[in-house]
Amino acid sequence: MTFDVAVKRIYEPASPADGQRVLVDRIWPRGVRKADAALTLWLKDIAPSDELRKWFGHEPARWAGFQQRYRDELDGNGETVAQLRALLGKGRVTLLYGAHDEMHNNAVALADYLRETG
């Protein structure tokens, strides 16, 4: 099955093209009002563990290691992954994140994981 999954910074304005908007960070992003976020769901439990997040520290040199460790965490988090897949079964889902780095963040890694594990 091919999922329609997109990735977007939560600081960008919401759009009807986003479909269902799911925040995938454990911590609420600074300066964002809940009403402005237009969330379908805040799925804290799918975010990387605090230990993994702190280890990664958004260091691009650790990206490959972060992706593998996060995949291992996702493999052990079947119920939450299934919840997200259920939303994907209903149409487009945009994974929202707060990080500054648009290439190396948990939402990008999660989208890749969802696409590869179908």
Automatic annotation (TrEMBL):
At the top level, the lineage of the source is: Bacteria
Specify the protein name: Uncharacterized protein YeaO (DUF488 family)
Native organism is Mesorhizobium tianshanense
- InterPro entries from the UniProt entry: YeaO-like
PANTHER family from the UniProt entry: CYTOPLASMIC PROTEIN (PTHR36849:SF1), CYTOPLASMIC PROTEIN-RELATED (PTHR36849)
